[in-house]
Design a protein that fits this description.
This protein has 7 helices and 3 strands; from the N terminus they run αββααβαααα. The protein is mainly alpha-helical and 144 residues long.
Amino acid sequence: MTLRDEIRDYAQRTPPAPLPVPTPDLPRHDGKIFVRRVASGVIHAYIRKLDDEADLRAATVAILACDESGNRIFNDDDVLWLSTAAALGPTIERLYVAGCFWNGLDESNRSAFRKNLPSMEPSGSPCCSAEPSTPAADSTTDDS
């Protein structure tokens, strides 16, 4: 068996375990929420089919947040209320950052993702930065 075959065999029979995410803002559910790892094509396809007005953080959380077994917690119809629920803001940010980390969506591959989504603003990438964003940072642009 070649090295390629061994890697492929491993990837096909060993799904990555979901990553637990602390959610102190939801104490009743703390320890019950995870993020799953998915193929990059799954994330790209999911984000492409969203409405242009959809909150990409909430959409990313909707596809990646899962239970301990890796089953999605939220469905596609939940993106709007996830993005508008002020009580969930810190939790959404925490899940988003953890999901980006677990799926390798960081600053180093952000530009490649943006290139595939030309209609998005640079700050609209579903990839995380090292620092969580704040509402003020997300609402200001220098494009004027």
